[in-house]
Amino acid sequence: TESKETISQVYNIGNSKDEITMRELAKLIISVIGKEMKIKSKNNNNDSPTRRCPDISKCEKIINYSPQFSLEEGVIKTYDWYNKNIFNGLEVSAL
Predict the structure, then answer these.
(1) Can you tell me the distance from the alpha carbon of 33 to that of 91, in angstroms, rounded to the nearest whole number?
(2) Average pLDDT of 16-30?
(3) Burial label, 15 (beta-carbon count in 10 A; 0-12, 13-18, 19+)
């Protein structure tokens, strides 16, 4: 939504209700893809945030945003789009 309040503002978009670890996210993606893969853990670097959960309160208040899909639904929809538009060899450009 464009309004005087939203111009030049930065918003976090996501789902703040389903905080999961990066390992859990990797497992979910592997499950959606349906391939056998191993997850390799690496040490965090100094710049790694300890939590990755967006604060979407500004979006909820200013533009009346609320998540429409669960994380799993979002991963499935994203993978399906990439599978149809990118992984098929007919690459489309992101505009």
Answers:
(1) 19
(2) 86
(3) middle
